[in-house]
Structure formats: C-alpha cells, structure tokens
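tool_call: predict_structure(chain=1)
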Amino acid sequence: MELVNDFTVNTPIDDAWVILTDVERIAPCLPGAQLEEVEGDVYRGSVKVKVGPITAQFKGEAQFIEKDAAAHRAVLRAKGRDTGGKGNADAKITAQLASVSPSMTRCTVTTDLNITGKVAQFGRGALADVSTKLLGQFVDNLEATVLTQPAVAATAKAKPKAATKAAPRATRPATPIETPAAETPTPSKSTAAKKNSKSVPPDSGPIEAGPEDVQPEAEAKPTIRKIEQRDVEPVDLLDAAGASIAKRIFPVVVVVVVLLLWRGRRRRRRRAAARS
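tool_result:
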C-alpha cells in the first residue's frame, strides 16, 4: 500500500536537508523507534507497537539507496521482522523537500509499505490515519528538540587511506672483485649462459623489490557503533487510529443494535399472543 504525508518545518531548505537526512539525529523523535547501532551507512534498530493488550517489536535495518542533495530528494529502504515471528514489514520511503519560503520547508513523504501480521488487520484507511498522527508527533518532537539547536553543515569525514609500500630488502654495498693482472681467456657463449643461469651471489649489489613483492592493501571494514538510547514506549495503534476505527465500527454497531431491538420486539409480541 502507498501512504502519502507531508509536513512543514520553519527551517531553510538546506538546513532542513542536513537535519532530515541525519538518521542518528532524528531517530529519537520517531514515536516507538529506537536506534541501536550504526555500521557504515546501515542503521539498525527496533520499532515497538501495541494493538490492544498485544505488544509487537519489529527489529530491522534501514539504508539510504538514493540521496540527491541538489534536488533535495532522498530514498530510504527499511525492513524489519516481528521478534515473535508473527509478521514483517518492508518499506520504501521517499522524502522530497521543497522551499516554501527562505525560512520554511515542506517535506512530502511517500511510503510504499508492505506489512504482514497483526498490524496488517487495520487496512489502508486506518494505517493512513496512524501514519498521519505519528508523523505529527514526530514533527512536534523535531521542533521541540532538534530544530531548536543550530543546524550543523554536512561535512565529509572521509579519511585518506594511508598508502602502504613494501619495505625494500636489506642490501649490502657491492664488494669490488679483484682480478689478476694477467689476461684471462674470454669465456665461450655456452659458458656465459651457464653463469647467467646461476643464482646471483648475495654480494652482487642491491636487489629491488618486484611488483610481486608488494602486498595489496587490505580493505577496511566499517566499524559498528553502539547507540545509547533510553527504552521507548510502544506506539498504541488503537489510540492512534481510534477515530478511523470508530468510523468503521459505528455502522456495524448500529446494525447490531437494530437487530437486537427487532428481535426483542418480536419476542414481546409472541409472549403477548401466547397470553391472549
């Protein structure tokens, strides 16, 4: 199902882009969400939801699959699984920023959501109401915390890799070879070839390292950073979708009440006819 929401923040578009694409910074503002660790550009955490007396926790990860700073457009892919094994969720979230004024930015969020399990029983209408209410809570938290802080410009923290060179082998200065004054016979071609095929003596001068002696540089693996964050309360979906569920239940309740009154009236007529 596709859910479309939008919200407006009192922040210039460039500052809003830096803030809203900083997952680690805005994660505490998401109701029921808890960021637990970061590995490179992969964010792992959990989302807690409650449906009546039943509480479910989805653990998963999210990663940007597209970030276009010039167009102020970002696409985030998130997936998670219920820790109880009763459902899973997969979402592709597209955020598009637009400047409303020099100091105001509108963010349109389009969510392509695929969900199974207990939460899926709400249907598209109820989930749309839930997403609208939760997004409103997110914006309230964002304005009360993050947006009150000065925006920090995005800086590249790429560290240059240190080039590794193979250490040259230890060498000894060449020792001059003394030859007698008498003329020595010129060696034949076959004899010279045999000498050339022999191994070079250790005192024949410095030996340069060949390409095969250079060890390839090992690829650095991204480190896993643990995020310390307090436990969050689960999102009560019945409370968030109360009005929507009431609209759907009300006609059913009316029909049930009418049927009960009609049956009660028939019973009273039968009793009155039996007495007479």
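agent: Residues 241-276 form one domain. Proceeding to next step.
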